[in-house]
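ARCHIVE CARD
CATEGORY: sequence design from structure
SOURCE FIELD: tokenized fold
FIELD CONTENT:
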């Protein structure tokens, strides 16, 4: 029986080892961030632009443009929309300001864009996500997290997580927990409501982390050390898959039984079964450096890289 099971796994792997993209979506400019909300891809680009792609209609249905900025030489350039989100008719746009490394944060609602944070506030924010209609979680370059009240424009709290440089955070399904990656390779489990650090997850990565994700009781991360890491956040135990290049992107499926990582310099994505710690598929076709992988469900995956191309794959 054990031999038969091994043969079956090998047969499945051989059949689905290399999967070509199902769909190619071309944005107006290189993509820096992307989220999936209400069956729409919310896309931040390097061209002072947020784009919305409707997966039902299979077309772009909205574009939000923000002002260009001036660089340190005084030249007018496009603003990089580095972090985006959506909730109940509100679009979130985090962009660089061109002034001292500080950030601009805006909300677009009813086709009106409002400044929430500007360069005058002197905040170096790397990532932003809605917690609810009134609050945004902010990740700072200094590896601090802050819960920001939109109405009062004040921070409910700000917490220093480590002395390292911030990399990324991801929220769980109900936005009560965040997992945060940093330059040291450590993951921090964070309670969003209270602003308290719950747990440190370490020992698997030993260098700078890039994208992280959290689903159910699992967290994943990839790093400069060429390790694609997973942890059980309850037990703290984990492991890693060895890559041949920096692991720029990682993601978990909704059930947290599958994980996808960028694993080589060709920007191929390897999908693993975490229960068996075995490969399921290799997704080939992305050309630029990967920055985002999203599981729509257990079998549908989207990815974006530092070019205009967003790819969609179907595992089976």
């Amino acid at each position: 029986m054990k031999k038969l099971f091994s043969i079956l796994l090998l047969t499945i792997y051989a059949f689905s080892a290399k999967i070509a993209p199902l769909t190619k979506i071309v944005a107006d400019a290189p993509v820096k961030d992307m989220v999936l909300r209400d069956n729409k891809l919310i896309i931040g680009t390097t061209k002072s632009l947020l784009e919305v792609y409707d997966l039902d209609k299979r077309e772009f249905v909205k574009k939000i443009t923000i002002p260009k900025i001036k660089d340190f030489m005084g030249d007018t350039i496009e603003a990089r929309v580095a972090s985006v989100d959506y909730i109940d008719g509100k679009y979130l746009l985090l962009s660089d300001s061109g002034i001292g490394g500080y950030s601009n944060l805006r909300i677009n609602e009813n086709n009106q864009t409002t400044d929430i944070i500007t360069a005058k506030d002197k905040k170096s924010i790397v990532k932003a996500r809605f917690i609810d209609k009134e609050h945004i979680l902010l990740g700072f370059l200094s590896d601090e997290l802050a819960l920001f009240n939109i109405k009062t424009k004040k921070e409910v709290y700000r917490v220093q997580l480590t002395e390292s440089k911030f990399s990324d955070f991801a929220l769980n399904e109900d936005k009560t927990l965040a997992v945060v990656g940093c330059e040291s390779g450590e993951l921090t489990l964070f309670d969003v409501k209270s602003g308290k650090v719950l747990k440190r997850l370490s020992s698997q990565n030993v260098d700078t982390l890039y994208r992280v994700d959290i689903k159910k009781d699992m967290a994943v991360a990839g790093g400069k050390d060429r390790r694609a890491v997973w942890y059980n956040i309850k037990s703290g135990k984990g492991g890693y898959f060895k890559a041949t290049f920096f692991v720029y992107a990682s993601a978990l499926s909704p059930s947290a039984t599958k994980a996808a990582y960028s694993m080589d310099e060709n920007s191929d994505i390897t999908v693993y079964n975490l229960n068996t710690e075995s490969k399921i598929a290799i997704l080939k076709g992305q050309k630029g450096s990967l920055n985002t992988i999203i599981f729509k469900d257990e079998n549908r995956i989207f990815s974006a890289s530092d070019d205009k191309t967003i790819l969609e794959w179907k595992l089976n």
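CARD ANNOTATION: The first strand starts at residue 18 and ends at 19. The radius of gyration is 19 Å.
SHELF: design records, drawer C
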